[in-house]
Write a structure and sequence with these properties.
With 459 residues, the chain is mostly helical. Helix content is 80%, strand content 0%. The radius of gyration is 21 Å and the shape is globular. The protein starts with a helix and ends with a helix. Keywords: Cell membrane, Membrane, Transmembrane, Transmembrane helix, Transport.
Length: 459
């Protein structure tokens, strides 16, 4: 980084954001315990995770406005305080609705943290160091959601679901204190207007889509609960898209998609992330529900791949500075497809050791390409479009995570409904959906350009 104070600030912000993103999957292993504690079904309990990711996604474009309007220091301290408040509420909640509300408050804070970290790194990192710096950020963005089920599995084997909130508290308090002491007052010179109608439209559109997809396993497709909500969601989202192209103060600056490499890298990332988060639901579901093993076993199956992700995240960022993004992404996709195919064909009837091996193969593929894709998408944007690019990239990442999870869980439930007394078939179908999404990612990734190619085109 160009300034020691900025470097210290990035460390503090990455630390806090790590726990914000960790919470996106921390509750996954605890869903069966929540169902028992509050007597709720699968369709209701999944809002503990999907509600978090949806609110998180909606807060990210709001942050694009806030970054232009307010000081970095004030925004990050506010985001950390909000996240702390949601965590406290979750720890003391006695009704299921308050657990969901607590998760959504957490998501507001975490959704504000994520863009701040990216914008700080992209704006102030030296060009030749962007890959390495983004590799450090990858620890928060890509390692934390993978390690979440492992952490919660260990906790739930000894303690109640409340400790999934309690264990986070001291780390967030430490982040808040460090942010107050370390973060500088980085000046800004913009006073944009906030697009409230756009936020309302996209909130309703995405909520309707996600609710409709979540209801696939409990209602007929052509019912209002499924097809009706999906149709409403599509229409409202299209209205949002059209209005954002013409308004002078868009909630999301869709003109970032005029930069073709940003569009391609973002689409590939969305497809990959959908499978990554879907997998964090599939494995606990397989191990705890169908193999009747403990939450601890479920967490340990994911642990080797999570450790690999944490170890190699910085290396993958450095590789972007040396190897073409096309080679990295195609290598990663090939490895990820192999691991997913093994999960689909063999994994449902395998031992925890075999499951852990296949998951580690998948994580090797993921860690090879996630940071390079993010660096490629954001690092090529004009300076003044970086906040909008960060907001759009991370919003679509979280939307892909929530929708991918909803589709995969619905597919598992549907297959199990039509193939009774054979739960592993539904899990296999879930893995096959992940494989299909990865194959689509291969097709899109064919349009990635290397840095020399881009330089030649612009010369």
């Amino acid at each position: 980084m160009t300034n020691k104070r900025i470097s210290q600030s990035l460390i503090v912000m990455v630390f806090g954001t790590f726990f914000g993103i960790l919470c996106s999957t921390l509750m996954n292993t605890g869903l069966p315990q929540l169902m028992t504690a509050f007597q709720v079904n699968e369709a209701q309990v999944q809002w503990v995770t999907n509600g978090y990711m949806l609110v998180n996604a909606l807060m990210i474009p709001v942050s694009a406005y806030l970054i232009k309007r307010f000081l970095f220091r004030h925004l990050y301290i506010l985001a950390t305080a909000i996240f702390l408040g949601g965590t406290l509420l979750g720890a003391v909640s006695s009704q299921f609705i308050f657990v969901i509300v607590a998760r959504m408050i957490q998501a507001i804070g975490a959704g504000m943290m994520m863009p701040l970290v990216n914008v700080l790194a992209i704006r102030y990192a030296k060009p030749e160091r962007k890959g390495a710096i983004m590799g450090i950020i990858g620890l928060a963005f890509n390692f934390s959601p993978i390690i979440g089920p492992t952490v919660s599995g260990i906790i739930l084997d000894y303690l109640s679901w409340r400790y999934l909130f309690i264990i986070i508290l001291p780390f967030i308090v430490l982040t808040l204190v460090a942010a107050i002491v370390v973060l500088p007052k980085i000046p800004h010179n913009e006073s944009p207007r906030f697009n409230l109608p756009g936020l309302i439209l996209i909130s309703i559109g995405l909520w309707a889509l996600l609710m409709g997809l979540s209801n696939i396993s409990t209602a007929a497709f052509f019912s209002w609960q499924v097809g009706g909500l999906i149709l409403v969601g599509v229409i409202i989202t299209l209205i949002f898209y059209r209005t954002q192209l013409t308004t002078t103060n868009p909630l999301i600056n869709l003109h970032v998609f005029n930069h073709r490499q940003f569009l391609v890298a973002t689409l590939v990332n969305m497809l990959i992330v959908a499978t990554m988060y879907g997998n964090t639901i599939l494995l606990p579901l397989l191990i705890q529900t169908f193999q009747h093993r403990s939450a601890l076993v479920s967490g340990l199956v994911i642990l080797p791949g999570a450790l690999l992700t944490g170890t190699l995240s910085r290396l993958s960022g450095r590789l972007y500075d040396r190897i073409s993004v096309r080679k990295l992404v195609f290598t990663g996709l090939t490895i990820d497809c192999l691991g997913t195919l093994l999960q689909a064909l063999i994994g449902a009837n395998s031992s925890p050791v075999v499951l852990a091996t296949f998951q580690t193969v998948r994580q090797l593929g993921l860690v090879t390409m996630l940071i390079p894709l993010q660096t490629h998408a954001l690092g090529l944007l004009p300076y003044d479009m970086v906040p909008d690019g960060v907001a759009t990239f991370n919003t679509l990442r979280q939307i892909a995570a929530s929708f991918g999870t909803a589709i995969i869980v619905a597919a598992v439930a549907l297959v199990n409904h039509y193939v009774p007394n054979s739960g592993h078939v539904g899990i296999e179908a879930g893995f096959l959906i992940c494989l299909t999404l990865l194959i689509c990612a291969v097709l899109v990734a064919a349009h990635l350009k290397t840095q020399p190619e881009l330089s030649h085109q612009t010369a």
